[in-house]
Design a protein that fits this description.
alpha+beta, about 35% strand, endonuclease activity, Endonuclease/exonuclease/phosphatase family protein, nuclease, Endo/exonu/phosph_ase_sf, hydrolase
């Protein structure tokens, strides 16, 4: 099954931290439409079986459910609602969610906000096939190290194959050290575009990952995203 993970960029975070990407999209409803169009094409046309999403605003969540009525659009809302520090583009719903878009019949296995960070967490979903997929957003630094322990427990608590995708705020080597040897952390091919581009577009970091346990990961690649977010989607086939 083809899976993608993508931090779609919450508008409030983008404006609060001055992300250059957002300056290309002054009209937030248009950006939301384009984000949803890209995801809809991936699922309906390109054959992806699940999308694991982070930083999903209430506006994006509403649009996903409206445009993908035959899919399960499952979410975990954070207790923290992003606060605008300065006037920005109008939004109807400022709430922030982890989201898994999956086939009809998929159900939430577990969902939690990580202790110590009300804007990070994990949402795990069981697909009709039995595969467990999860979307996660992990904090940077020491907080993130503790959260990786929670994710390791999620892997080992399941008797089913598991795929976790998300924004880990850490390079691959950090995940390899923190997780057991049975967890496969996808490795991008040399020369792949950075998953988190630098502002000048000449560098960046690879902090968005797909991981599997009791499964295989192949054809890992970074997808084009029309500069809709400060992160690029990462895709792979899980078998």
């Amino acid at each position: 099954m083809k899976v993608l993970t993508w931090n779609v960029l919450h508008r409030v975070h983008a404006e609060n931290y001055g992300e250059p990407t957002i300056h290309r999209w002054h009209d937030e409803p248009e950006r939301v439409r384009r984000v949803v169009d890209l995801l809809s094409k991936s699922l309906r046309v390109d054959g992806f079986g699940a999308a694991l999403l982070q930083e999903v605003s209430g506006d994006v969540l509403e649009a996903l459910r409206a445009h993908l009525p035959t899919w399960a659009v499952l979410d975990h809302p954070y207790p923290r609602v992003p606060r605008q520090k300065q006037p920005g583009a109008p939004m109807r719903d400022l709430s922030e969610h982890l989201v898994v878009v999956a086939p009809e019949g998929s159900t939430v296995l577990s969902a939690q906000t990580f202790a110590g960070d009300p804007g990070k967490g994990v949402l795990a979903v069981t697909l009709p096939s039995g595969l467990v997929v999860a979307s996660t957003h992990v904090s940077w630094g020491p907080k993130g190290e503790a959260q990786l322990t929670t994710l390791r427990e999620l892997f080992h608590a399941s008797s089913a194959p598991v795929c976790i995708g998300g924004d880990f705020n850490a390079e691959r080597e950090v995940l390899v050290r923190a997780l057991s040897a049975e967890v496969v952390v996808g490795a991008l091919s040399p020369g792949s575009p950075r998953t988190r581009p630098a502002e000048d577009a000449t560098g960046g970091a690879d902090i968005d990952h797909l991981l599997v346990y009791r499964a295989e990961l192949r054809d890992l690649r970074v997808l084009d995203h029309s500069e809709l977010s400060d992160h690029r989607p990462v895709a792979a086939t899980v078998t």
